[in-house]
Design brief:
The protein is an alpha+beta fold. The protein has ten helices and 14 strands. It folds into three domains: about 100 residues, 2-Layer Sandwich (Gyrase A, domain 2); about 120 residues, Beta Complex (RNA Polymerase Alpha Subunit, Chain A, domain 2), CATH 2.170.120.12; about 90 residues, DNA polymerase, domain 1, CATH 1.10.150.20. Strand 13 and strand 14 form a beta hairpin. About 5% of the residues have low confidence.
Length: about 325
């Protein structure tokens, strides 16, 4: 017999699983029948459309006046050079929305994305190819990199770039894939509840979890237009991100970064330990039981961990612990 309800039940479970480099799945359940697709479809569109990324919006190449020109000593025409440049995925520091960078290359060489790294610019695909130069080549160019949403045509950018620069079509979106699957899940004796499984992959400018979280925040902010209508109040406050990739990354720093003595480092190395997170996951007793680890080495390791804030009272959040274990296992497989 079907129970009479006065309100739909709310889902209670969320899981985040890392599927590979820059790819994760987010699972939520149980939803009542029909509610999963109602939520999943707009979220997918927001993941694809509201994720902020970085892209070059203009370029000025010394000796080239337009995109169909050529540069002496460079194998590629300017048009091909620009295509290669668009395939490079940049990242700017927090708070920086636009940056102009000058580059200069001389002589016979192959230029790849990592050659464009500066103190203020990070490249997420460092091996991407850009150009090949002859021994008599001199290549000087200036790129403007900006932060933005979605895809913007060069015609819409032209007014914002220098007169002597070439405006570029800008593909900001860092999300490569955002799919979802609706599955049935059993709740008590009812098999008609539903589970959403999101599969999200990014290019590395943002993590999949950050892209998903940003979509949630965007949805809340858009819905907040109805605040105060018929006594409705929608919470559009930013969502706390406790378990994103940036938090996990700090635990993946190599053991060498602790600055341990050779004796202590060698003991950990022989035990197969490579990253700080492996020590953070262990209790003081477990560290003490590492083979061939003497008292002085134990004290040194504990002092280093204490200095980083990982004392014996420090505890990882459950989700962070699970994700860290998975990440370490993946690193060891690689």
């Amino acid at each position: 017999m079907k129970k009479i309800k006065v309100a739909p039940s709310l889902p209670t479970n969320v899981e985040v699983n890392e599927l590979g480099t820059n790819r994760s799945e987010v699972i939520a359940y149980p939803f009542e029948s029909g509610y999963a697709i109602t939520l999943a479809h707009p979220l997918r569109r927001l993941i694809l459309g509201s994720s902020v990324g970085f892209a070059p919006i203009s370029i000025k190449i010394e000796g080239a006046s337009h995109e169909f020109d050529s540069v002496r000593g460079m194998h590629e025409d300017v048009a091909v050079f620009i295509i290669n440049l668009k395939n490079i995925r940049f990242k700017l520091p927090d708070g920086v929305e636009k940056l102009e960078v000058n580059y200069s290359f001389v002589g016979s060489r192959e230029i790849v994305a990592k050659d464009l790294i500066t103190d203020n610019i990070e490249i997420v695909n460092p091996e991407a190819f850009l150009a090949t130069l002859n021994e008599d080549a001199i290549l000087n160019f200036t790129v403007v990199i900006a932060k933005g949403l979605g895809y913007v045509q060069s015609e819409d950018i032209r007014e914002d770039v220098a007169i002597d620069a070439i405006a570029l079509d800008a593909f900001f979106t860092p999300v490569k894939k955002a799919n979802y699957d609706i599955q049935n899940v059993l709740v008590e004796d009812n098999p008609n509840y539903e589970k959403i499984v999101f599969d999200i992959e990014t290019d590395g400018q943002v993590s999949p979890v950050d892209a998903f979280t940003n979509a949630l925040e965007t949805m809340y902010k858009q819905l907040s237009v109805f605040n105060g209508v018929l006594d409705v109040e929608i919470n559009a406050a930013p969502i706390k991100r406790n378990n994103d990739d940036s938090e996990i990354r700090k635990y993946l720093e190599p053991i060498e970064s602790l600055g341990l003595s050779a004796r202590s480092f060698n003991s950990l190395d022989r035990a197969g330990m490579k990253v700080i997170g492996e020590l953070v996951l262990m209790s003081t007793t477990e560290i003490k039981n590492i083979k061939n680890l003497g008292r002085k080495s134990l004290d040194e390791i504990n002092e280093c961990l204490d200095a980083l804030g990982y004392d014996e009272d420090f505890e990882l959040a459950d989700n962070t612990r699970v994700n860290l274990v998975k990440k370490i296992e993946q690193l060891k497989k690689d």
